[in-house]
């Protein structure tokens, strides 16, 4: 175990899901039904991974699963873990992991869940709050394993989009312009997030920004994405397919609705296509709008803060209020009931919420690959 002067809570996205997982559509339960998903050959995103070949990764997963030492938060990320374990014909069970990496640090969990832009940085780096393991750790990437599920998107209600099409296009145009700038200038974007109230340390914020940029401009196969916000059919279909296998809603009608859901039911490409084709001039129907994040201000959401700080929203005729997540009202509920106009959520959340009777639609997919990895100490395997 490494000694550190201070331990930071891992302010991960999934912590917010304690408040927001599939709100309004009933409790979810994981299922142990095995699937035989084909393993995909994938290219690394560019961050230093485990450096192991597929057979060694399989051995690591099998050993940790056999020892009952695979950890996850169990608040929405577990579906990728269940799909990974089922892929290798292993028992689909895991340890409950808290929101620090202390269990990993003291070897209570030998294969621990981590987001590339958050917990992985805390494990590897030696800045304040970090555990400082450096290259002594490796990780298994959900994208390389072919079980990736897409995370942060932009959504609104179908009714809002129909009634305010110019506003939706303008908001997307400015937001994606902010994301483009943030990806190209992650250090500056991190400083802007800090300026707007992030509680994350400056060093970790910069680490987060550089890793979030990779999620935005690299797809699940490791290929560069130039169209920020692109809705990739294959990646979205994979996400929805895994969700259907492992998400179980406690309302039978909602569960049946989820199983019948198609991509066309929950996403609309027309708005981002129109925004990308526009000259940046819009006749907005509603000039004051709001977006609720999935968690507290941090580089995970840097594109919106950059768009606000650089005046991109103002340029398209909008005044935008960025609302922190992590409160009593989930982002899906807040958007559905009109408390806010736009929100950031995950495709699985949105599909489950709509199956439960909400009226939500994805209008842009910001993260193009999963940020979830399983991290381990090389000395343990």
Q: What would a concise description of this structure say?
A:
This protein is of the alpha/beta class and 381 residues long. It is built from 17 helices and twelve strands. Mean pLDDT is 88; it is low at 4-55.
Provide structural commentary.
This protein is α/β, with parallel strands linked by helices. The chain has two domains: 13-146 and 371-380, no CATH class; 153-365, no CATH class. Helix content is 41%, strand content 13%. It is built from 17 helices and twelve strands. The chain has helices at residues 13-20, 54-66, 78-87, 102-105, 119-124, 158-163, 165-184, 186-195, 202-217, 233-246, 252-260, 263-266, 270-277, 302-309, 312-315, 331-336, 347-355; strands at 28-29, 71-72, 95-96, 112-115, 137-141, 153-157, 248-249, 288-292, 319-323, 342-345, 360-365, 372-377. The strands form four sheets. The chain has a five-stranded mixed beta sheet with strand order 9-8-10-6-11, sandwiched between helices. It has a three-stranded antiparallel beta sheet with strand order 4-12-5. A two-stranded antiparallel sheet has the order 1-7. The chain is globular, with a radius of gyration of 20 Å. Residues 4-55 have low confidence and may be disordered.
């Amino acid at each position: 175990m490494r000694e550190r002067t201070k331990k930071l809570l891992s302010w991960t996205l999934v912590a917010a899901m304690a408040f927001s997982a599939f709100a309004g559509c009933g409790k979810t339960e994981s299922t142990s039904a095995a699937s035989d998903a084909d393993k995909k050959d994938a290219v690394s995103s560019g961050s230093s991974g485990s450096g192991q070949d597929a057979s060694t990764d399989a051995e690591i997963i099998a050993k940790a699963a056999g020892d009952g030492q695979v950890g996850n938060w169990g608040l929405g990320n577990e579906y990728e873990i269940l799909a990974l374990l089922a892929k290798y014909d292993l028992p689909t069970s895991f340890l409950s992991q808290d929101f620090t990496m202390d269990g990993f640090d003291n070897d209570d969990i030998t294969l621990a869940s981590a987001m590339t832009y958050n917990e992985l940085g805390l494990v590897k780096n030696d800045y304040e709050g970090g555990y400082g393991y450096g290259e002594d750790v490796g990780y298994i990437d959900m994208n390389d394993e072919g079980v990736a599920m897409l995370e942060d998107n932009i959504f609104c209600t179908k009714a809002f989009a129909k009634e305010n099409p110019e506003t939706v296009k303008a908001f997307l145009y400015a937001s994606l312009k902010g994301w483009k700038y943030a990806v190209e200038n992650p250090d500056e974007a991190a400083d802007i997030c800090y300026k707007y109230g992030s509680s994350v340390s400056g060093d970790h914020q910069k680490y987060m920004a550089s890793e979030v940029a990779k999620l935005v401009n690299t797809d699940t196969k490791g290929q560069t994405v130039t169209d920020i916000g692109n809705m990739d059919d294959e990646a979205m279909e994979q996400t929805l397919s895994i969700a259907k296998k492992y998400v179980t809603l406690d309302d039978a009608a909602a569960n049946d609705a989820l199983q019948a859901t198609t991509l066309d039911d929950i996403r609309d490409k027309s708005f981002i296509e129109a925004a990308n084709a526009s000259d940046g001039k819009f006749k907005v129907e509603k000039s004051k709008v709001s977006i609720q994040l999935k968690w507290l201000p941090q580089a995970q959401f840097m594109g919106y803060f950059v768009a606000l700080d650089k005046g991109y929203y103002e340029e398209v005729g909008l005044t935008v209020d960025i609302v922190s997540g992590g409160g009593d009202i989930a982002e899906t509920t807040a958007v559905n009931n009109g408390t806010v106009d736009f929100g950031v959520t995950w495709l699985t959340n949105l599909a489950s919420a709509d199956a439960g009777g909400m009226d939500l639609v994805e209008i842009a997919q910001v993260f193009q690959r999963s940020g979830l990895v399983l991290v381990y100490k090389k000395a343990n395997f």
